[in-house]
Design goal:
Layout lengths: L2 H12 L6 H8 L3 H14 L5 E5 L5 H9 L5 E6 L2 H13 L5 E5 L12 E7 L2 H5 L5 H11 E12 L5 H23 L2 H13 L3 H10 L4 E7 L4 E7 L1
Parallel strand pairs: 1-2, 1-4, 2-3, 4-5
Antiparallel strand pairs: 5-7, 6-7
Helix pairs in contact: 1-9, 2-8, 3-4, 8-9
């Protein structure tokens, strides 16, 4: 798949679902996505960073949670390639009183920030889009490393593969049946939730994600499974 086709596919997948994005996430995760993002936000804040980026921020749930939980001054930025998502994110942040967040439109393959701009970069349920059969995977990870300060932490909350064969099989059925059909019916976008179901079912294991990050330049990677391993939090240190 060429870079142009892959980029267009992802753009087409997400450009029309911003209105129902949060609702569907809540339904298909049984409201657990909020707790998972809060855990990821606390991981982001563990080293008390002063500059945090929510990469591929979507509707900015992670950025808003980081801003809300921080008990000290910090700068939070959100970046996404979708202007429609950013408009929802900005409105949501304003309505919730999250005033310390700035938003920018841009591509993960060419981040519009100087070297070592952030002490922490977080990404919630979008790392799969940057790495799953994506021809720009090397560029994405190089850019993340470039804008992350030395010693900085890259916090990823993402779908994963349960170690139990039984739970893994049930998870795949759930994604391909319930998630696909629920997402399609509510959003009206069949392609978006077909992609979500298939990419989540086929995505890497925690071990494979660790190897991927280590090979690209991170020197330490930890992993915490969530809900029997259907999702997890990876923390990689530059």
């Amino acid at each position: 798949m060429s870079r142009q086709i892959h980029a267009k596919l992802l753009y087409d997948v997400f450009k029309s679902i911003q209105a129902t994005y949060d609702l569907i996430n809540t339904i298909i995760t049984w409201n657990m996505d909020k707790r998972w993002r809060e855990k990821a936000a606390r991981e982001c804040l563990l080293s008390r960073p002063t500059r945090v980026l929510d990469l591929c921020c979507g509707t900015a749930d992670l950025a808003i949670t980081v801003s809300r939980l921080a008990d000290y001054p910090l700068e939070v930025s959100g970046l996404d390639y979708s202007q429609a998502m950013l408009e929802v994110a900005s409105a949501k942040a304003s309505s919730l009183g999250a005033k310390r967040i700035s938003f920018a439109q841009g591509e993960a393959s060419s981040l519009p920030f100087p070297d070592a701009s952030f002490d922490c970069i977080g990404i919630s349920f979008a790392f799969r889009n940057l790495t799953y059969h994506n021809p720009l995977i090397k560029k994405h990870l190089s850019e993340i490393l470039r804008v992350l300060a030395p010693g900085g932490r890259f916090v990823i909350v993402e779908s994963s593969q349960p170690r139990s064969k039984i739970i893994r099989a049930l998870y795949h059925i759930y994604m391909r049946k319930f998630v696909f059909w629920t997402g399609w019916i509510i959003s009206g976008n069949r392609q978006a939730y077909r992609y979500l179901a298939e990419s989540s079912s086929q995505y890497y294991s925690a071990f494979e994600v660790k190897n991927l990050l280590m090979k690209r330049g991170f020197h330490y990677v930890s992993y915490t499974p969530l809900f029997f391993g259907v999702a997890g939090i990876h923390v990689a240190v530059k």
